[in-house]
Queue: 2 jobs
Job 1
Amino acid sequence: MSDTSRLLADNVQAFLARHPGAACDETFMEAVRESGFALAMAPEELGGLQCSLAEAATVARVWGYQAAPLPIVELLLSGFAARIKPDLVLTTTFMPRGGGERLAAWFPGVERCVDLSGAGSTIAPVGERSASTTLATEPLVAVTQDAMAGSFRLAGDDLLPRGALLTAARMLGAMERVLELTVEHVTLRQQFGRPIARFQLVQAMAADAASEVAASRAVIGDALAVVDHGETADLLWRAAKIQAARAATLVSAHAHQMFGAIGFTEEHELHRFTTSLLAWRNVWGSTASIEKELGGLACTIGGDGLWGAIAGN
Amino acid sequence: MLWFEERPNVAAPRPEESGLRLEVRRFLDGECKAGGFVPRPNNWVAFDRAFSIRCAEQGYVGTTLPKQYGGGGKSARERLVICEEMLAAGAPLGSHWIADRQSAPQILRHGSEALRARLLPEIAAGRCTFAIGMSEPDSGSDLSSIRTAARKVDGGWRLDGRKVWTTNAHHADYMIVLCRTAPRGEDRYAGLSQLVVEVASDGVTVRPIRNLAGEHELNEVIFEGAFVPDDNLLGEGGDGWRLVNEELGFERSGPDRFLSTYPVLRLLVAETGKDPNRYQAVAIGQLLSRLLAVRSLSHSIADLLANGERVILAATMMKDIGTALEQEIPQVAGRLLEIHPDPHGSGFAAALAAALLNAPSFTIRGGTREILKGIVARELGLR
């Protein structure tokens, strides 16, 4: 982790600690605007910090770790897109829900969305705030087919890999917190006269969850570094997003199993992480669509060239 | 903030390694085309002395050993590059693999000067095969319960007992044997030592154990008063538990723990062709993403090792999920292509059969899955 990343992580931690109980609303949005974090990737002349993707990913990771509201990935990317077109306030479309209508993450002031349904990313205006939400009750905005008609392509478009990796980083932070909470819970919770951590089945579940988090951390870190070096990361960014999704599935399921009934309640904080994790698997490219793309890329490269594409050269 | 504070891996691309990668790849391609070897899954256990000597002539064996002992004096990263290329190509590495991976580093760190001067140059030349003497008939995962024992005699030790599941003992020149040199007392981990035993010595008998694929790779090794000279003791004597765990660290953390069935994935992609259906593309995408994730974890371990940091947690996790992937690849490949796995066939059919038949061993050898999860749990503070 670079010094800049460390500093950013500390500052974001401190900022979020000053806003306990923040919600996805105008008040918190204003605080985030003032903090400058959303402009981490924007150029200096636009008031940004001109951070690398890896550094911006630190912001997303801490956001995930704290289960903080507002779609931080979209805010960070709006800052990135400002290099190309200033004042672009972007969100991203999710999987379709029929009738050609799509949904995207809502936040105060959102104007446009990145539509991933076609080849490349298209910028389209958003419509009204929707009654629909994500699994984690995060607010959404509707993007109608009519709105799509007014769309335009963003030149120098490389938003998708960045959106996917920032989302994976946010997921990583959330998973790191879930693992921490779980280790604490199984160590303290007593049944049959001993902590449940003493049972081998519990140990194995915790070990599996920890391994998924470690693999995610490693591949996300590699993918961020490669993108920041300006090298081709066609395989690696997809692998990182798929790994984060696979990890999210297992970590959420195992955590709920180990927490038992208390983790199933609205009162307990566990669901603030796990329901988001399940939802984020399909943001900035659904898991299945990215898996299909990655497999398709491998087949295009062919068996003989595959290792070279994996290892370089 | 236990997890967040941990140093994350940010492995930047390393263009300086690409020259070496291409060089090794060209060598292997030439070998393969000239009939020097037939690519196979799980081939790093296959014995081929002549191939190992040719690798050594290129500097691909004993890469990290100091030059004074005939080694290449190169970094652990460079060795990782060489090993990855060899494994991905499905080359037969059994003659030098164990010596290169764990025996040589063990002798370098803990051997007498006489032992280092005698054995390390032979290993680096690809002329010396080592076997691992850990498991016994009554001691598998519970390694501290071993009964093979050495008693002190004039000028050395007399060794009695038996080891099992010893890969390539019938080809090996030497074997590093974990044994009791003091009776088991209060502390079950005390009184153990590691001895470097010459397999051709009097009092050493090697018997074959055929595996379920009908291959002779494993052996039972019996010691009946075999003499081992003083110079062949590793460490101080009595510190064998610490030593054997260090050796297991080398054994568990390498790319042989996730690339054993890579040749099957390569053939799967080749056989599927440029136009996969949705199911094939999704399944191949899942396998490839997992491979890249485990590989990133493996590289982060190499970086930690290079910085002299503790790697047990990351290495244990890597072996656990890496070997699970090695087992998953042939299962998925068999569903996607519906080609009859044929141990007597060729190409994909033969590779699939070899991978399916050998797969059960992947999560047993070098530390069972159960032991690995226990170690991870311990590192998490759960036991």
Job 2
Amino acid sequence: MSASNSYEVIEPPSDLRSKVKVLTGRQAAEFDPVARAEQALTRMSVSFPLWMNEEVETLSSTHKEAKAAGFKGEATENFYRSAHNLRGQAATMGFPVVGNTAGLVCELIEARGEEELPAALIASIIQAVRAMVREDAKGLSNEMAAALFSELRGLTASEVARLEAAQE
Amino acid sequence: MSHFDLSSLRFLVVDDNVHMRRIVRMLLMSYGAREVMDAEDGALALEIFNSQLPDIVIADWSMPVFDGLELTRMLRNTDSSPNAYVPIIMMTGHSERKRVIEARDAGVTEFLCKPISARDLYVRILSAVLKPRPFIKTKNFFGPDRRRFVNPNFGGNDRRATNTEDDPELDAVTEEMQRAG
């Protein structure tokens, strides 16, 4: 441990390097952890459309609850969290455009301050997310998904600018 | 990239989303991990951490009750935590600079932006294990040395490259470990 007047530098007492081994020779040639994980992810991907449907159902139900609560309080926090979850994990599940679209909800809620949220735009985003998953639209190569995302992104950018300006 | 036997490491995965927990668990098991615990919120994570003492914590930022950041602060509390030095990898959909700084200041070891990939998670684990940083204790901070924290959005030449194939520091550690057997 070394110290100055204002801080201490401490070496961690345990060292995890003692718990891992470098694989060499045949072991290293036969075991590629990243390749194995990618293969496992591919095998798991047969479940992803079903999981995405479950996530979209959660988004829809939290949206209904948040709307009923006037987009205030805990219900809106839950709605934000379900949109944020989808934004974070949709690409891992092979649906990047769905994640990007759900992320628009997060942008609006993050920008709102004390302002009213644009309920109609939010409803359109939720409908778009549902449609993309229903149509198995995974990326921007899907024309319907690309058009919806482009339109909603533009509208969201305008609303975010309005919300931010209203707070200045 | 060198391959490592991670079977002796014990992991705790904390995420309120069951699908993400399944994905991360599957990735860890594919890397060779044998013991992966999981928790759906910060409170349960704290309970498991205190009783099972995992080697590495992988936590989501956004969770109900208390979030990944609050969990990090509790794990770094030297008065109450059984291992305040545990490596913490924070997974998040937030990649803004202010969020990265907030995570760093809470004592997070590595920051992993979603969507996560098999390679990105593996590289973060190796970085946390093979390149341990000294801890800094000040009046307001306890955690890994913040000067080596990497902004995931940084566009320039990165000393701690996200791809370990290009990371001379990690290569040097690997060679040293190979020599030591």
